[in-house]
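Why predict the complex rather than its parts? Because the way molecules touch one another can change local conformation, and only a joint prediction can capture that. The input here totals 452 residues.
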Amino acid sequence: DVAKAIINLAVYGKYQNRSYERLGLLVDTVGPRLSGSKNLEKAIQIMYQNLQQDGLENVHLEQVRIPHWERGEESAVMLEPRIHKMAILGLGSSIGTPPGGITAEVLVVASFDELQRRASEARGKIIVYNQPYTGYEKTVQYRVQGAVEAAKVGAVASLIQSVASFSIYSPHTGIQKYQDGVPKIPTACITVEDAEMMSRMASRGNKIVIHLEMGAKTYPDTDSFNTVAEITGSMYPEEVVLVSGHLDSWDVGQGALDDGGGAFISWEALSLVKDLGLRPKRTLRLVLWTAEEQGGIGASQYYELHKANISKYSLVMEADSGTFLPTGLQFTGSDKARAIMKEVMNLLQPLNVTKVFSNGEGTDINFWIQAGVPGASLRDDLYKYFFFHHSHGDTMTVMDPKQMNVAAAVWAVVAYVVADMDEMLPRS
Amino acid sequence: KAVFKNGVSQRTFREIKEEIANYE
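Output of the joint prediction:
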């Protein structure tokens, strides 16, 4: 009755709400945990102690070099057609403006195609992207590529409608990328409301002028750590089921949703197994990644360090898409492995979370999945996720302890059973 | 050993299914 015991302990028993309470203590104490920040360093130290005090095994830190970018002071004011102070968030890796800022006329476009069509109008202007939200994967391209595409046509800065499915005047930050050979221009996200307003103004023929100041700076890379803890396997200790989330966040809100929840249900999975006195046949390894938000930096270096043992990884798991009410598991692997995962998920019938979806993925586990290791990610109710993602609204207030309990139970049952089965998951 | 040398399990899916059901 292992699955039932895990579910009972996590959802109804003594340790219900534990992952929520543990997370609240960390994020209320430390706050957001930007790559390269003192906050992230402090969070890693606290987690190292927490995992040791929890009685987990082989608790250690694995060194990683990570980027260090800081946004500094930033502001944007519309000067024409009326004075309007705008909420902005500079995008990760953006350069700052020159001292005194940039004052320029705006060109509003709804897409990269429109930018190309109107390239002759773009020189010397601030490009405002008012792209519609058509899902995260597609829309995020404007955040990541917006500055490069604007710079290619001679713009001096870019302001991008936040990648958010809902807005109450909230800017949402995130990483952006420059391209070799293309001038670097300052870039920030603005609110959905302001982007849409400027689009309306432009369509009426209004001239729009914005003054933008950004103090963003990139500093030399710095040392950080992936945080690792284990329950060592009883029969095949060299074989691994990896359970993970990332400990870093952006520098706004509390990083509770992204990805405090994922990191803490992953810790909870090991805690539940340990508290029930269980020891799977192969090792359950918890990894709390560093610098995921900068492009999976910690995970990339972990992969380089450990890929020689790739044949020993039965399953890699990451929770980085919220810990709201789970609907199932996303899974990538061979047909045989998928059939096995369906049987494993049947153990979660008491929670009515039995579905196995396609496309197990995560920035931090994709290295392994692409190399043929079966991968799983938590599938949950994403309705509210992009309301808060990368914004000041990413706080404990949006987290739900009962939903985290269910997520932790799902995570623990899957991790334990796959780690304890007689054989590793079959590969293609 | 957890995985046979050729990487192919000799067990039937029915056996694996029964094993998993034991965790219920």
